[in-house]
Design goal:
It holds the Pfam family Carb_kinase. Its EC number is 4.2.1.136, 5.1.99.6. Belongs to the NnrE/AIBP family. In the C-terminal section; belongs to the NnrD/CARKD family. The protein has 21 helices and 18 strands. With about 525 residues, the protein is of the alpha/beta class. The protein has 2 domains: about 250 residues, Rossmann fold, CATH 3.40.50.10260; about 270 residues, Ribokinase (UDP-N-acetylmuramoyl-L-alanine:D-glutamate ligase), CATH 3.40.1190.20. The strands form 2 sheets. It has an 11-stranded mixed beta sheet with strand order 1-9-18-17-16-15-14-13-10-11-12, with helices on both faces. A 7-stranded parallel beta sheet has the order 4-3-2-5-6-7-8, with helices on both faces. Helix 15 crosses helix 16 and helix 18 crosses helix 19. It binds ligand NPW, adenosine-5'-diphosphate and potassium ion (K). The site of ligand NPW has 28 residues, from helix 1, helix 2 and helix 3. Potassium ion (K) binds next to strand 5 and strand 6.
């Protein structure tokens, strides 16, 4: 897993390195500029040599300082470079000022208004070094520029390489206008057209930042490349701060999923999934099949009497047991071999769902609550929070999250006014602390947090985009995946992270045309690809 930093964490790491004498701020800025130029030519080798023109837009802080380094290095590599500054050169921070002066020895710096007033783009490469991690408020006067950049990113590729006027756009650290912690744009009522820049390529430093993977961040960054700027491993700092670090879930190791060669089915747990009544049974069957495919030794679907025939006609490897209401569930759970429970998909939001949830939670087994098992508590979430325990995982989508945590959802939905803005990471952490269990908050940027503050993002963005997951029932399959992993003995956090990651892998394996039934059927191929 990779760690994602906030602006404050990046500054702390930078500060620690500078104070230890390991590096100076000016050296870091030079390496950042070098990293950007390296990434540009790696992405577009055709920009090297020949008659190429670059425009570099520099801002009033250190992001602008990186821009002056980029301008100098591009010029050294043979580009014709024009530089525009937003703000007052006399107020630049010291390192940025030093690089401004260095550039000024060989080139001119014009005010940004000269560029934005001009006709067309007039370059092959546009470097956005206006704002990075220090952006703290909206920039209404840049709305028009941002809007044009979005247009350029959308239209890119048609004439690039043939006709000047459709530049490749590179963002230094972030497309300007995005909050680096939350990925939100800073809106402003006076802004024209757009609130943040767009880019084809974003080059960041040392480690990715949270905002590259949250909210609008991923959409506007294009592609993110992270360049090493020689900051050390900062082991001490990490030891003190590990809980506050957000992880990006990456490729999982096959050992994670292997089954012992000599184990029998009860070694891998027995998951119980509760079905809704007749006519509402498909969701639970999707979850049950997901739990079985992901490796639970046994999976039983608990069905009310009214739906027994319907379920029996549609199940083979998944077993079926009649469970009528909370009393029936209490009796079944006397069998301690049921070591994971999944409730919610298709369960309905009547009072009997509440009774089932309360019974399941009192049994104190690893439990996944999804869909109706969450919605049922919209009017009284505190009743639910009072019973949830540390072995639970709840898996709300945006609507369910809002019903359970209305005040947190309101903060998350509020427009960013000052930076750093309240993020989906902040929201999920706060929700997990309140619920007292793992919360998996769905979306292309699925965020998972536990009550201790550990947090990770499962990204279905960039080259892991999986828009076909937005299909009815895919969340039910995820709930099943997580329950199956709980049955196998994964901890709630591990089960949620692993289930979410495999869910996206399955969607990508199948690709366009995916429907929920297809997801679990991709698991064998995904496991094989992992080397299992
Ligand atoms: N940390 C590191 O390790 C490294 C960092 N590096 C680079 O530094 C960047 C961070 O630099 P940074 O902190 O100077 O912030 P930056 O993004 O340039 O913007 C702040 C400036 O903008 C101003 N300002 C803010 N909002 C505004 C608005 N709406 N409209 C107008 N002005 C506004 C704000 O003014 P103030 O809020 O103080 O009034 C301040 O002057 C980082 O992204 C990376 O590129 C690399 O060199 C490598 C090592
Ligand atoms: N555009 C998208 N890109 C990636 N994943 C998505 C996207 N839209 C939805 N998902 C994922 O699909 C699943 C949908 O779950 P949910 O909304 O509960 O659906 P349902 O209730 O129909 O099963 C979640 O895991 C969510 O993260
Ligand atoms: K930028």
């Amino acid at each position: 897993m990779t760690e994602l930093l906030t602006a404050a964490q990046m500054r702390a790491i930078e500060q620690a390195a500078i104070e230890s004498g390991e590096v100076t701020g000016l050296e870091l800025m030079e390496r950042a500029g070098q990293g950007v130029v390296e990434a540009i030519f790696e992405e577009w080798p055709e920009l090297e040599g020949g008659d190429r023109k670059a425009v570099v837009l520099c801002g009033p802080g250190n992001n602008g300082g990186d821009g002056f380094v980029v301008a100098r290095l591009l010029k050294e590599r043979g580009c014709e470079v024009e530089v525009f500054l937003y703000g007052d050169a006399d107020k630049l921070p010291p390192n940025a000022k030093a690089n401004y002066e260095r550039w000024s020895e060989t080139g001119r710096v014009a005010p940004l208004s000269e560029y934005t007033r001009g006709e067309g783009w007039g370059c092959d490469l546009l470097v956005d070094a206006l704002f990075g991690t220090g952006l703290s408020r909206p920039s209404p006067d840049l709305g028009n520029l941002y809007w044009n950049m979005e247009d350029m990113v959308d239209g890119f590729g048609i004439e690039f390489g043939h006709k000047r006027g459709r530049p490749a756009i590179v963002a230094v650290d972030f497309p300007s206008g995005i909050c680096s912690d939350s990925g939100k744009e800073f809106p402003h009522e006076d802004a024209h057209y757009r609130f943040a820049a767009s880019a084809h390529l974003t080059v960041s430093f040392h480690q990715s930042k949270q905002g590259h993977f949250l909210s609008e961040g991923a959409e506007l960054c294009g592609k993110v490349v992270v360049k090493d700027i020689g900051l050390s491993e900062e082991k001490e700092w990490r030891k003190d701060n590990w809980k506050a670090l957000t992880k990006l879930i990456g490729r999982l190791h096959p050992n994670w999923f292997r089954k012992d060669q000599d184990g029998h089915k009860y070694h891998h747990g027995h998951a119980l999934v509760l079905s809704g009544s007749h006519g509402s049974t498909g969701a639970a069957r999707l979850a049950a099949r997901g739990a079985l495919r992901i490796g639970a030794g046994l999976v039983t679907l608990g069905s009310p009497r009214s739906a027994m025939l319907e379920n029996a006609a549609n199940l083979t490897a998944v077993m079926l047991k009649q469970i009528d209401g909370a009393l029936g569930l209490t009796e079944v759970l006397e069998d301690m071999r049921f070591n994971a429970i999944c409730l919610g998909p298709g369960l309905g939001i009547r009072a009997d769902t509440q009774a089932l949830v309360l019974t399941a939670l009192k049994a104190n087994r690893p439990t996944v609550l999804d869909a109706d098992a969450l919605t049922r508590f919209s009017a009284n979430p505190d009743v639910l929070f009072g019973l949830l325990h540390k072995d639970c995982v709840i898996t709300p989508h945006g609507g369910e999250f809002t019903k359970l945590f209305p005040d947190i959802a309101e903060k998350l939905a509020a427009p960013a006014v000052t930076g750093p803005a309240y993020s989906k990471v902040d929201a999920t952490r706060e929700a997990a602390a309140r619920a007292g269990c793992v919360v998996l908050f769905k979306g292309p940027d699925t965020v998972i947090a536990d009550p201790d503050g550990r947090c990770s993002i499962n990204s279905a963005q960039y080259d892991r985009a999986a828009p076909w997951l937005a299909t009815a029932g895919s969340g039910d399959v995820l709930a099943g995946f997580i329950s199956g992993l709980l049955a196998r003995g994964f901890s709630p956090m591990q089960a949620a992270e692993t289930g979410a990651w495999l869910h996206v892998e399955c969607a990508r394996k199948f690709g366009p045309g995916l429907i929920a039934e297809d997801l679990a059927e991709q698991l064998p191929a995904v496991f094989r690809d992992l080397g299992l």
